[in-house]
Amino acid sequence: MEKILGAIIILGGLSFLLFIIFRKKKWLLPTKPFPPQWRIILLEKVRFYNNLNTDEKKHFEYEIQEFLLNCRITGIKTSINDTDKLLIASSAVIPIFAFPEWKYYNLDEILVYPDKFSDDFKTEGKGRQILGMVGTGYMEGKMILSKIAIHQGFMNENDRKNTAIHEFVHLIDKSDGATDGIPELLLDKQYIIPWIDLIQKKIAEINDDKSDINPYGATKQVEFFAVISEYFFESPKLLQKKHPDIYDYMVKIFGHKMTDKVSKNKSKIGRNDLCPCGSGEKFKNCCGK
After folding, report:
1. Could you give the strand order of the β-sheet that contains 142-146, starting from the edge strand earlier in sequence?
2. What φ, ψ does residue 109 adopt, rounded to 5°?
3. Residue 109: which H helix or E strand, with range?
């Protein structure tokens, strides 16, 4: 009887876990035009956006609006402005841009802290080493990000680091029910075993000090996937040169060649340039007023 009761409890726990993981909230869709002022922020801050063609830019903008309609962004001891929101949303959209039907059903809210925080979420005192975290347990459905790290991820395009993208990759990894560095929803089954073997090979190279990949990627298989994804989206040409095997797998997983998305730098809108809102007016007489 006790064994049966124990089995029932375990099954109940597993059912609850599956419910949490796969629950699907009502997903809102954009109905309003994309704000022109947001377009200017994207042009000036997000290189990925600058390298898209006109139709792709419209799709990116739609995905940004959709994300912001469905995921709250809350500042903890800090204020949140449009730039903060757009950089967070861009970090969410970039990894899944090739998958228009993708929804972050496993995310409800992003909590933004001013700087590093501790593992018990303190923003002051000792032990503050964390820049980003995907919530578990009672924090399920939440992500925590450092505001400074969000901006640094888009300021320095050569450091192969973007904390927000790192955390969203963890969410993508988690969407198949296991956070294990194997994105089974994006990677065909025949590639899974070779992918695991390649991860182990690359982790060994990191541990032998024979790799330029962030050493944090050697701590766990799941962290390797998130770290190498940062590398892929930040410095794809360098990744292709130094780790062509890894680059090829990243293309398979994320659905596009990132080397095509970094030829143009971010844009600085001049006052006499045509306004990016499409009005035909000079920027100084339109959105730049």
Report:
1. 72-75, 109-113, 142-146, 132-134
2. -150, 140
3. strand 109-113
